[in-house]
């Protein structure tokens, strides 16, 4: 294998030749490996960028394999995501110090200079440049100072369709990006910009293409999915079709008619944007699965106000009540943050008691992590870290009990399971329509197939 760094080491070419050397070397061998941190939206974008580079002639490798270029798509919701990014770069440096390392995603947009100081990083791509990755890679020269391609997040506009293919059976389809909300703990608006959407017609086109490629299930993803309908320029204009404004409910109704796709899931939707008409439509649809993921963050109205959330716990309880009335078998997942500044033992007890009483299925529990340039940094008192971890453990135990109870309620029932492609040591996994995970000995004929399964 001829690579740029070998050519540069062997021959003392002038610096101006390095780009030509890189292009020539890459013509012989071009390999790229990806690692994704964070949300389903990141997975969909990584997959699309991977296909983009494959069209440019790159061969995709596993992240633990040797590759000419390593791309890390970062998250920055928690401090752990930042730390994991740095650990991955160090791992690459130990294994393949002459390979190119590219960092993109939310962490790259928020702290490009911090990332550029990590030894081994060659290129940092902000929100506006990650889909121009091929051009930027062609211009790289190993040994140069880290190149930062970023801009003010207010200048980020446009919408890039993305979806995951061949990475897993369920395909993540991005239909919305950015967020106009200003939650006091969140950096996402600073990392992804204003709320903006694809058009319904383009989403339908993408869904039809996925159906042709054999996809059985689509998970709709976005930063603030329920805010779907704002123009791709992020300027707050609303997309309209035939004189009617586009919104998430219109999208759901249109997707339900696409032939070939057997299942849809709504990845995550704010409770104030999950309308009764959406819930009622899902209840009567054969394609939209009885499964909702609804962020709560706290069961205390005092904490919800401090977090600048746009609802109270009473509205949340109403949404859960309607879902379980219309779909008693429905799975409901909940996001919760523990240890937010000012959260007392009484506030946490409110959250625990509220969740304990709700007919929900599982929790995603996040330990509050201080993020730069957020309003939450001005709030007090700060909750000690050991208390945050204790509260996290308490809610994770509650989540385990909730999921056990939810699963036991369906024992003896026959439900439809979509099995995944992956063979995990002789076993395969799949999910029921209402998101109960099933594990069984691997059978190739069941891959990407919906099977009637007695629980």
Could you characterize the architecture of this molecule?
With 455 residues, the protein is α/β, with parallel strands linked by helices. The chain has four domains: 4-151, Cobalamin-binding domain (Rossmann fold), CATH 3.40.50.280; 158-178 and 186-289, Transcription Regulator spoIIAA; 293-398, Transcription Regulator spoIIAA (2-Layer Sandwich), CATH 3.30.750; 414-454. The protein contains 15 helices and 21 strands. It has helices at 4-10, 18-28, 40-55, 79-95, 106-110, 112-116, 133-138, 188-192, 200-212, 248-255, 276-284, 301-306, 313-326, 345-357, 385-409; strands at 31-36, 59-61, 69-74, 100-105, 123-125, 147-149, 162-163, 170-174, 176-177, 196-197, 217-221, 240-241, 244-245, 263-266, 291-297, 331-338, 362-367, 414-419, 427-432, 437-441, 450-454. The chain has a six-stranded parallel beta sheet with strand order 2-1-3-4-5-6, with helices on both faces. Strand 7 (162-163) and strand 8 form a beta hairpin. Helix 9 (200-212) packs parallel to helix 10. The radius of gyration is 23 Å and the shape is globular.
> Which residues sit in consecutive blocks of at least 5 with pLDDT less than 50?
1-19, 21-28
CATH topology of the largest domain: Rossmann fold
Mean pLDDT, rounded to whole units?
Answer: 90
> What characteristic shape results from the CA principal axes?
globular
Major β-sheet profile: 6 strands, parallel
Report how far the terminal alpha carbons are from each other: 52 Å
Under the CATH scheme, which architecture of the largest domain would be assigned? 3-Layer(aba) Sandwich
Strand content: 15-25%
Biggest sheet strand line-up: 2-1-3-4-5-6
Number of self-contained structural domains: 4
Assembly state: single chain
What is the number of helices?
A: 15
- Class by alpha and beta content: alpha/beta
What is the CATH homology-level superfamily of the largest domain? Cobalamin-binding domain
Tally of extended strands?
A: 21
Helix content: 25-40%
- Tell me, what is the CATH class of the largest domain? Alpha Beta
What's the alpha carbon Rg, rounded to whole Å? Answer: 23 Å
């Amino acid at each position: 294998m001829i690579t740029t760094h070998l050519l540069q080491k062997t021959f003392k070419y002038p610096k101006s030749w390095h780009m030509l050397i890189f292009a020539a070397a890459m013509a012989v061998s071009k390999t790229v490996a990806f690692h994704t941190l964070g949300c389903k939206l990141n997975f969909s974008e990584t997959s699309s960028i991977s296909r983009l580079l494959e069209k440019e002639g790159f061969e995709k490798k596993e992240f633990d394999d040797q590759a000419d270029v390593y791309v890390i798509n970062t998250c920055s919701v928690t401090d752990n995501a930042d730390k994991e990014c740095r650990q991955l770069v160090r791992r690459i440096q130990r294994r393949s110090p002459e390979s190119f390392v590219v960092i993109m995603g939310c962490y790259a947009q928020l702290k490009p200079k911090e990332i550029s100081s990590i030894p081994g990083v060659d290129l940092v791509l902000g929100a506006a440049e990650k889909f121009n990755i091929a051009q930027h890679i062609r211009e790289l020269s190993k040994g140069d100072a880290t190149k930062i391609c970023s801009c003010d997040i207010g200048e980020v506009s446009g919408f890039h369709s993305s979806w995951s293919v061949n990475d897993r059976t369920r395909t993540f389809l991005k239909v919305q990006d950015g967020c106009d909300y200003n939650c006091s703990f969140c950096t996402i608006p600073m990392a992804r910009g204003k709320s903006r959407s694809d058009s319904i017609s383009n989403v339908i086109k993408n869904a039809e293409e996925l159906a042709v490629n054999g996809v059985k299930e689509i998970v709709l993803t976005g930063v603030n999915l329920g805010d779907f309908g704002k123009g791709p320029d992020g300027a707050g204009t609303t997309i309209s079709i035939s004189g009617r404004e586009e919104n998430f409910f219109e999208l759901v109704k249109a997707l339900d008619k696409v032939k070939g796709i057997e299942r849809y899931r709504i990845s995550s939707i704010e409770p104030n944007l999950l309308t009764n008409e959406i819930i009622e439509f899902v209840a009567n649809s054969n394609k939209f699965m009885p499964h909702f993921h609804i962020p709560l963050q706290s069961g205390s109205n005092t904490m919800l106000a401090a977090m600048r959330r746009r609802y109270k716990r009473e509205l949340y309880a109403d949404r859960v009540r309607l879902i379980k009335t219309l779909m008693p078998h429905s799975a409901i997942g909940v996001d919760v943050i523990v240890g937010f500044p000012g959260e007392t033992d009484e506030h946490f007890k409110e959250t625990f008691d509220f969740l304990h009483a709700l007919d929900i299925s599982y929790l995603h529990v996040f330990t509050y992590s201080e993020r730069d340039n957020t309003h939450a940094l001005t709030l007090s008192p700060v909750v000690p870290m050991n208390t945050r971890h204790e509260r996290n453990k308490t809610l994770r135990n509650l989540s385990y009990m909730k999921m056990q109870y939810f699963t036991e309620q369906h024992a003896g029932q026959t439900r439809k399971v979509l099995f995944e492609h992956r063979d995990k040591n002789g076993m395969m996994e799949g999910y029921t329509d209402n998101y109960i995970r099933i594990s069984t000995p691997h059978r190739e004929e069941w891959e990407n197939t919906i099977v009637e399964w007695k629980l």
